[in-house]
Batch of 2 targets.
Target 1
Amino acid sequence: MARLALLFQIAVRNLFASKMNLIIGFIMLAGTALVIVGGALFDSLNDSMSRSVIGSVAGHLQIYSSQSKDELSLFGDFGGQESDLEPITDFPAVKAQLEELPHVRMVVPMGMGTAMVTSGNIIDLTLADLRGKLRQQAEGKGSPTLAAEVDSMKSHVREMARLIRQDMIAARVISTQSAQQEQGLETIDRVLSDAFWADFDRAPLEGMEFLENKLAQLLTDGDWLVLRYTGTDLDAFKKAFDRMELVEGTMPPRGQRGLLIPKFYYEELFKVKVARRLDLLKEAVEVNQKLLAEDPDLQRRVKELPVLTRDIMMQLDPLKQRTLVTQLQQALGSEEKDAEKLLKQLLTVNDQNLMERHRLFYELVAPKVELYRLRVGDTVSLQSASGGSGYMSSTNVKLWGTFQFQGLEKSPLAGVTSLIDLVSFQDLYGYLTPEKRAEIQALQKETGAQQVAREDAEAALFGGGAALVAEGESANIDEAAELGTQERAAPRTTYTEEDISGSVVLNAAVMLDDSRFLADSQRSLQGLIEEKGLQLKVMNWQQAAGFLGQLTLVAKMVLYVAVFIIFVVAIVIINNAMMMATMQRVREIGTLRAIGSRKGFILSMILVETAVLGAAFGALGALLGAGIMRWLGQSGIPASNEQLYFFFSGPRLFPALGVGNVIAGLTVVLVVSAISTLYPAYLATRVSPVNAMQAAEE
Amino acid sequence: MAPIVAIENVVKEYHLGKIVVPALRGVTLNVEQGEFISIAGPSGSGKTTLLNLIGCVDTATSGQVSVAGQNTMGLNDRALTDLRLNTLGFIFQSFNLVGVLSVFQNVEFPLLLQRKLNKTERAKRVNEVLEQVGLATHTKHRPSELSGGQRQRVAIARALVTQPKIVLADEPTANLDSVTGQQIIDLMRDLNARQGTTFIFSTHDAKVMSHANAVIRIADGKILDRVTPQEAARAAAGIH
C-alpha cells in the first residue's frame, strides 16, 4: 500500500518535472477532447437525423410484405429506383394486431411510387384564361373593360407567337430543318398575320381551337417532372407525423382524392425560375451571410438572372407591359421604354441592390404573372409505370396544398415525397381488384388472347406453317358505333372509408409513443409476426432509410477510421516521447535499481506514471471537450447547405454531450497511453544499475 | 572469520563492437568486516569496475566474487537485486537522489522496497539515521533545496537506513568542496567506528585516503598493492 502510495506520489510529482511529459500530456488532452467532441457531435447528428427520418416519413418502424422482391428503402436506392414491394395481405387485420402491441401509437398505411407530372405550359394557361373571357362575352357579360382585356390578351398571344418564332429561327441555326419545324413556322406565321385575327373576331372559338391545338404545342417549356409520392391515409399521416404542417391550401377533405406537394419541391420545380433564383440569392446573402461578389457559384447565378426574363415576358400582355414599364421606369429611374430591357435592368443585381430589387420584383412584377406553373387548386395528371400491373396508369388528382416538416423546411430530403390519398395511389399502382381481374379475363376469353412465354413468342408469331388466320380488309371505323356501346364510368373523385381500409398497402409506418422503446418494440413486433405467421418483415427507421441510413453508418466508419488514425499517430508520438523521457531518466532508474528496486517495481513506476499522466490530462481534455460542447450546444452549428438541414433536423444543430462520450474519451486515452507506454516501460526495466555509477563518473 | 568481500582472480572485459577492452585483469582482494578501505588509482584504472562487481551491479567475465558469504556469480537478477537491497548501501559521486521526493522519502525508499517494517518503525528508523547525519530538521526538504554536502548526507542516510553490512561509495567527495568533503569522510569514519559497517570507497584524493585503514592501489586493471594511507601519500607525492 505504502509502495503504491509512493508510486503515485512519484508519478504525480513527475507530471510537471519534464517538458516531455507536458508534450505527451498535451497530446492526451487534445486526443481526449477530440474523441469527446467528435463522439458527441456524431451522436447528436445521429440523433437529429433519426428525428428527421422518423418524423418526416419513416416512423420508428416500418413493416412490409415478406414476399417482396426488394428490401424496403424509403428514400429509394442509390439510383433513385423504388423498391419493388408486394402488397401487404389484409392490412386492416395487421393494423389492428399491431396497434395492440405496447408502445405502438399508430400504424400508418403507405405505398410509394414515382409519377411523371407536367409542370404546365404558359401558353396553355394564357389560352385557358382567354377562353374564359371569351365565354363571358358569349354569355352576354361583355363590358368595355372585358373587351380591353380580351384585346390585350390577343396581342399577348401574338407576342408569344413572335417569341416562339424567334426561338425557332434560333434553333434552325444549330439543327437541321425538319418538316415539323416548317409546319410550326407556318402556324406561327398564320397567328402573326392580321388575317388570322380578323377571322378570330368573327369566330373566336374556331380561332381558339387552332391556337390550342397548333400553337400551344410549339412552346416546349412544360417539362415532365418526376414526382415521388407516398400514398397514405392523409389524415392518419398528419396525425402520426406531427411535425408536418400545411404551408398553403388545406388538407384534402376526407373521402376526396388529393395531392399535397412538399413546399421545397414546389418552390424548386413549379415556381418561375427567375423568382426562385432571386429568392435563393436573397437567402444566400441574408441567411448564409455570403457575398455575391465573392462566391463564384452565386456570381454565375447573378449573371444568368437577366437571361431568364423570357418566362416573365411570356406572361405579360400589352396592358400589363405598359403598366410595368411605367412602374419600372420610376423605380429604376430609367428612361428605357422596352419592358424586356427594363426587366433585365431590374434583374441585374449586386450586393448593394439585391434586397431592393427583390422587393421591387415582388411588388411590381409578381402580381402581374403566375409565379407557379402549377397552382394550388389545379388538377394534375399523374402518370406512373410502377406498380402491380406493369401497365402505364394515370390518375387525375387535385393539388390541395403544399406542406413542410417543422425544422426541415429547407431540406430537399425531407421534401422528397409528395403525399396522395390511398385510392389515387391504388389507381397509379395499377392494383388489380378482383373485378378488374375478372374483366381482363373476360376480355382475354372474348378476343382469344393467349399467354405466350417470352422465349416462345417469336415462334408463336412468325414460326410454324399455320394457315393464314385472316385476310386484312380496309374499312371505315365507325367511332361512334364502336365507342358509343361502351359506357365508361367517369373516374370517381370521392371514395368511402371502406375504399381507404381496403386499399392496397405496400408498407406501413409504426409510430411508437417513445423512441426509447424502439429496440423492444422491434423485437415484440418480430415476435408477433413469428407467432401469428404473418407474411411481414419489420425494419427500424435506420434500415428503412436505405442509403440514408447507411450514410450514418458510413459516417460512423469514417469517424472511427479517423479516430483510429489519429490514435495510431498519437501512439507513435507518445511512444517516442516516452522513450526519450525514459532515456533521460536512465541514471535515476539505474540508481533505483542499484539501491534495490526490482524490474517489476520499475515497470509499475512507469505504468503508474503514464496512468496518472493520462488521467490528469485526460480529465483536462474532458473538461475542454465538455466546454467546447457546452459552447456548441448553446450557439449551435448552422446548417450551411440544404442537405444539412435534414441531418441537423433544422437550421441549426445543438449538440449535447452524453456521459457515454466522456467515458469513451477517457477510456480511449487511457488505452492509448497504456499501449504507447509498454515498450518504453520494457526499456526502462532493461536499464542496468551500472548506469547509476557510469553517469556519476561523467 | 571469513572476509566480507572475497574476490579471486577476477577478469572483467567490456566489448565495444569487436574490440575487447579489459577493465580488470585478474584481481584478487579480501576485505574484512568493519574495514574502512579506500580504492585508489588514476581515472580508467578500474576502480569503479571493481566497486560495481562488489556492489553486484555488474558481473565479472571470469573469477569469483563473494559478498557477505554469497557467491554472486551464480545469482540471477532478482537475487542480486535483493542482495543489493539488504546487504549493500550505495553512495554516489553525484548523490543520485530522487528529485521529486523529500529528504525523508528518499531515505525511506529502501525500507519500502524491503517491506520489513511498518510505517511507525520506518519513520523511527529514518529519523534516527537522519539524526546521525545531522539532517533531522530537514526531513521535508526536497534535494534541490539542499547544499551539495547536505545532499551527500541524505545519500549516506539512505545507504545506511537498511543497516547494510557493506557501504560502497564511488568518489563520494568528488563533487564537494574540500571542507565539506572532509566532513563527509569524518561522518563515514564515525559511522564505521560506531556501527562497524564496512566502508569501501574509491577516491584519488590523498586527503580522503588518509582516513582509510588501508588503501588498495590499482592501475591498469590490476591491484598494485595494499598499503597504509601514509605509504600511499608518500607514493603519490613521489609520483607527482
Target 2
Amino acid sequence: MKKSFLPAVVFAFSLVFGGYAQAITPDKPEFRKLADDVYVYIGKVNDANALVVITSQGVVLIDTGNNQPETRNILKNIQAVTKQPIRYIVITQNHGDHIGGTPLFSPPAAVIAHERVAKDWKQWKPHLIKAWRKRFPERTEALKEFHPTDAVMSFTDRMTLHLGGKVIELIYVDDTYNPGDIAVWLPQSGVLHGGFAAYKERHPDIRPDYSHGTTWGMLKQLEAIIPLKPKIVVPAHGPVGDTKDLQAMVDYLAIARQRVRAMMDKGIALEAIRKDFHMNEYKDWDRTAHLPVMAAAIYRELKGEGPEITPSIEKTVKGTITQVREEGRYLTIATDAGQTLALRAAGPTDIEGIPDRSHFKVGMKIEALYEQQKEWNDTLEIKVLP
Amino acid sequence: MKRRIKVILFFAVAFLFLAPQIGAQDLGPGFTKVQDGIYVYAPDQTTTTCSIVVTQEGVVMIDSCNSPLASRNMLAAVKKVTDKPVVFLIDTEVHNDHTWNHYIFSPPAVVINHAGAAEGMKKGLDPKRAETLSKQSPEIAAIVKDYKFIPPHVEYKDRMTLNLGERTFELIYLKNVHSEADTAIWLPKERVLFAASAANVRTMINLRPHVTIPDVLAGYKLMKSLNPEVVIPGHGPPSTTKIFDEYEAFYNLLLKRVGEMAAQGKSLDEIKKELKMPEYVDWAGQDRLGGNIDVAYKSVKK
C-alpha cells in the first residue's frame, strides 16, 4: 500500500486553521432523542451536526455528517432506531461537512436544498462530480452515471413536507449574499435546526468571500426564527441550545458590527482592524481564530462591498505525505518537485484504494488535483511553501 | 477479430432501428406523444388532462387523471413505456378531477403542489365520492376500494425546481387563476409547458369567486414569456400559446362589455341577463358565462 500511487482530488484550503479555543462537544459523537421520532446527531468536537426525523413515509435526514466515517455512523444510528428507509436529505448549508455524506443516501433519497445550492451543484467541474461518485466506495456502482443534481428538489422561498402526519418546514430568509442556507422547523415538537445562524457560544466563521453569508444576513435569519420560540435549537456545529442562544447571537453580532464600524469611523486600516478586533465579552466562546476573518468580512459588509472574489487555478501535485492532521483533513505534502504544500482535503475527496481521508498516513505517496488561489487569501488560506 | 467487431456493430445498429418505439397509438385512444418520453392523456376537448414524463430516474406524472378508470389507463401506459416507477406526481391544481386519484400512484409517488393545496383539497373533498363512484360499475368499485385521501407531501411557496435524471421541471405558482393552489410546470430543455387550468381548449372555464381576471391575464403573460413550443392545458389536448391568445381576447372582450354596461348604471343581474358573447358561441361550457360575468364585474368595480 505504501508504494501505491493514490490519485486524490483535494481542495487546497487552509494552511493555518488557527485551532479552536476549546472543544464544546465531547470527543465522541452523540445520537440523542430530542422528541418523539426526532433525533439529533451531535458531531464530535464541534463537527457538523445532523437532525433526523422519522416518519411512516421514510426518514428525513437534515445534513449528512462531517466526513465519511461520521456519515456511516449517522446511518448506523438511524438504522438502530427505525426500519424506515432514508427518503429525503435536506441541506441546510452548501459546505462539504454538511453535504458530503449525500452520496451515501441519494439515489434513491431525494435531496432538498435551496435553489442557490442546486445552481452551484449544477456548475460543478467534472473532477468534483467524479469525487462525489467515488466518495463512498460501496456506492461507486450506483453513482456511476449519476449527477449530484439528478434527484434534487430546490425551492426559492419556503417548502413544507407533510410526511405521515409529521410537518417539516424549510425556511429560507432572502438576502443578496445568503448562499442558500436554510432553517428547518418542526412545529409539532418545537425543534429547530437553525443552521449556521444558530451557533451556541461559538464565534461564527463569517468570511470575506461571504461563503457563509454575512453578519447582516445572519441577523435577518435570526429575526425570522426567534419568533418561532423553539424549545430546542440544533446549530450547524456545536451543542444544542434554545431560543436564548439565538437571542445571544443577535446581541453578539450587534456588538461585533458596532465595534468594526467604530474602528472604521476612526480611520483605522483593515489590517489593524483585523489585528485589534476582539470580542472580549465572549472570551469563553469557541473558535477565537475566526475573529480576524470575521472582522474583515464585517469591514466589507459595512463598506457595501460584495464578496471577495479569489480566482483559482486547477493544479496537480505528486508527492509524499509528511504530516496528517485532524484525521486527514489537513495534509502537508513533500512534492516530487521539492516543495512543501499544505492542503486541506475537503468534502469532495476522491481517494482510490483506501476508504476515506482518515486513512491518510505519513509516507504515503499521493497525487492530488487541487484548486490554488491565484493570490494569497486569508479566507481560503493556501500557498506553496518555499 | 475485426470481423467479429463488425458483426457486433451491425447488430447493435440494427437493434437501434428495429427496436420497438412506443408511440401514442400503442397506448390507446386519447394519448398523444408530445416528445420522446412525454405522453399526454386527454380523452377529449373538456375532460381533465393527465400526463407522464419519463426520466432516467423514474416517471414524473402531472395530475392524477379525471377518473379511476382514466388513472388505470395511465398506469397501464406507464408500464408500456418504461419499467421505472412513478416517483413524483405534480398537481397543477387542487380539484378532485386532478387530485382524487393520487392513491393509485402514491405510494410510491411523492405528491407536490403549492402551499395551500392540502387545505384546498380538504375543502373540496366529497366524503361520499368513493361510494358514489363504486356504484357506477364493478370495474370502478374494484379500483376505488383502495381509495385513501393523499394530500401533497411537498408544498412549495412561489417557485420550486425538481431535477430528476436528465430533466428539469420548474414549478411556477399561478396566483388566483383557478383553484386554491395552481402550478404551471415548465420543462425548459424540452420547451414544454403544463399550463394548469388557467387556459383550456375553447371552453369557458368555471371561474371560482377567488379568481381575478387581472391575475389570470398576468398568468398568461408569464407563461407566454417562457416561449413554449407545446402547451398542455388542464383540460383538453396539447396545443400552443394560441390558447393563451384566445383566452386573453375572450377575457378582454368580456371585461370591456361588462365595464361598458356597468358604466351605463346596469346592475350585475341586468348585465348577466343581457350580455352575450356571440363570438364564442361555439366554445364549450356556455353555462359558465354567468360565473365569468360575476368575476369580470368584480374586476371592473375595483
